[in-house]
């Protein structure tokens, strides 16, 4: 089988400079196209100043660049109100923002917080710690025997004292694409807030925030061709307006009295201090690149590579592919090779110029439930093609032949 890359490798300087590299760790971070690098250097060459703070022309140019970026990223994610997109350092900061600012104002002793077994630590630990701090009940929705979220269990957990249901759109560890509408319906029956970790969906799917139904959605720019340290939180306007600020300082105030302070309007209320304009501008260039490719094409491309990789890896003796079937997964495949530790496997693959991730994938609660310490994960993006999968499968089979212990 031959699946060509959706985007030319020549658009990505790092890949063009490393023609032998099989980069299969895009779920951790993606490579960046030249257009993103150009947008960042162009911003510094033309428009750089501290936005919002000066009345002079250059500061207005920086402000304009920042706001234009916000508009285009909000549009890309299907949010019709760009001022409800708060720029952050990424998914981790977005989830900490809402768990801290909203959580401490709204979750009390005896209330319940529900997360899922699939969560990345970034959508698990902040809620667990909130529960411990206020004396709330912390519950975890388990997986069914098919390895998918058990919605019957979720319905049982979501009682009338449940204040929030936090869940990932797409699992970084197993690739599950979760049924957002069903989860939201269960949570909203009791008026619980829904917080969606979109780190692995914003890069890969048409998110459509306005119709997704969740109250808040977190994402990272660096996983979708954009710069590190970029990303955001999109949330419903009334939620953001009612929520106290997260960090305090410049730009987020309206009036500072000696004894009290009032807050600025959205989005500034949640963006204290000098913003990451370079990150926003770079991320806007990244979404422009993705829009040109078309998100439906991006998704179809990754599904095809994921299915192909699953089939080929499953055919290697002693390989176990984990997670739901490929048609219900994002573009990644997670597997184990009997008798070979994932860390050893990833180092052996590295010697063949194959970059994959090995470990617990920041999902220790999930690894415990699966009964494994670690797995190996290959994840795909627009610049990957079937030859990357072929190289991976050949190398895994060769490691198996060299190192697997006879039964
Ligand atoms: N949530 C999910 C589902 C993730 O996959 C990640 C990062 C995060 C949150 C945190 O994102 P950050 O940009 O704030 O760091 N996931 C991974 C991964 O799978 N391998 O390295 C990082």
Explained architecture:
This protein is of the alpha/beta class and 407 residues long. It has 14 helices and 15 strands. It folds into two domains: 9-31 and 295-403, Aspartate Aminotransferase, domain 1; 37-291, Aspartate Aminotransferase, domain 2 (3-Layer(aba) Sandwich). It has helices spanning 13-16, 34-46, 57-76, 91-106, 125-134, 151-157, 180-189, 209-212, 237-242, 277-293, 295-314, 342-350, 364-370, 386-403; strands at residues 22-23, 85-87, 112-116, 137-141, 162-168, 193-197, 216-220, 231-235, 253-256, 261-263, 319-321, 332-337, 354-355, 357-359, 375-379. The strands form four sheets. The chain has a seven-stranded mixed β-sheet with strand order 2-8-7-6-5-3-4, with helices on both faces. It has a four-stranded antiparallel β-sheet with strand order 11-12-15-14. Strands 1-13 form a two-stranded parallel sheet. Helix 4 runs parallel beside helix 5 (125-134). Ligand 7TS is lined by residues 27-28, 90-92, 120, 122-123, 168, 172, 197, 199-200, 220, 357, 361-362. Ligand 7TS binds next to helix 4.
Keywords:
15 strands; binds ligand 7TS; alpha/beta; 14 helices; globular; 15% strand; Aspartate Aminotransferase, domain 1; 407 residues; 4-stranded antiparallel beta sheet; Aspartate Aminotransferase, domain 2
């Amino acid at each position: 089988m031959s699946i060509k890359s959706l985007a030319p490798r020549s658009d990505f300087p790092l890949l063009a400079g490393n023609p032998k590299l099989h980069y299969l760790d895009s779920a951790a971070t993606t490579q960046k196209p030249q257009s993103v690098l150009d947008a960042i250097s162009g911003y510094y060459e033309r428009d750089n100043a501290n936005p919002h703070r000066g009345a002079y022309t250059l500061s207005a140019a920086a402000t304009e660049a920042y706001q234009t970026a916000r508009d285009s990223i909000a549009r890309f994610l299907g949010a019709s109100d760009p001022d409800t997109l708060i720029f952050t350092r990424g998914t981790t900061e977005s989830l900490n923002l809402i768990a801290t600012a909203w959580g401490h104002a709204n979750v009390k002793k005896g209330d319940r917080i529900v997360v899922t077994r699939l969560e990345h630590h970034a959508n698990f630990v902040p809620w667990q710690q909130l529960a411990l701090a206020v004396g709330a009940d912390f519950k975890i929705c388990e997986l069914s025997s098919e390895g998918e979220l058990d919605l019957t269990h979720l319905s049982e957990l979501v009682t009338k004292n449940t204040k929030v249901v936090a869940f990932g759109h797409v699992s970084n560890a197993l690739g599950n694409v979760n049924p957002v509408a069903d989860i939201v319906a269960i949570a909203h029956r009791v008026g619980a807030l829904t917080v969606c970790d979109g780190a692995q969906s914003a890069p890969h799917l048409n998110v459509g925030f306005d119709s997704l139904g969740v109250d808040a959605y977190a994402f990272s720019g660096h996983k979708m061709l954009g710069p590190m340290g970029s990303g955001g939180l999109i949330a419903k306007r009334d939620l953001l307006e009612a929520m106290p600020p997260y960090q305090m300082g410049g730009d987020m105030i309206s009036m500072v009295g000696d004894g009290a302070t009032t807050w600025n309007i959205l989005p500034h209320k949640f963006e204290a201090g000098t913003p990451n304009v370079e990150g926003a501008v770079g991320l806007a260039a990244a979404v422009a690149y993705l829009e040109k490719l078309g998100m439906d094409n991006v998704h179809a491309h990754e599904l095809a590579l994921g299915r192909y990789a699953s089939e080929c890896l499953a055919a290697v003796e002693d390989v176990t592919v984990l997670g739901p079937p490929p048609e219900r997964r994002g573009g990644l495949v997670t597997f184990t090779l009997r008798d070979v530790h994932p860390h050893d496997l990833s180092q052996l693959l590295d010697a063949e110029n194959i970059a994959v991730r090995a470990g617990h994938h920041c999902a220790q609660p999930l690894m415990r439930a699966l009964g494994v310490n670690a797995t190996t994960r290959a994840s795909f993006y627009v610049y990957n093609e079937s030859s990357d999968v072929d190289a991976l499968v050949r190398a895994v089979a060769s490691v198996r032949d060299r190192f697997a212990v006879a039964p």
